[in-house]
């Protein structure tokens, strides 16, 4: 389980890549906690039961695994999966 924390900018956090300044590594096989904070983020925890919080901004969140907990936060958010 990784705790991955974005910045106040528009971050990309997904398996295989994260934006500069993101702390905590990259999402793995599941059970990760991902916090986008500010900015218009693109968030994808990969497989498994992840907890994803977009924070402020207009975020795009991909629900890739079963049993995920998603919170877009404030803004106009898009959730798919």
From TrEMBL:
InterPro entries: Hemolysn_Ca-bd (IPR001343), Serralysin-like_metalloprot_C (IPR011049)
One Pfam family per UniProt: HemolysinCabind
GO MF entries: calcium ion binding
Protein name: Calcium-binding protein
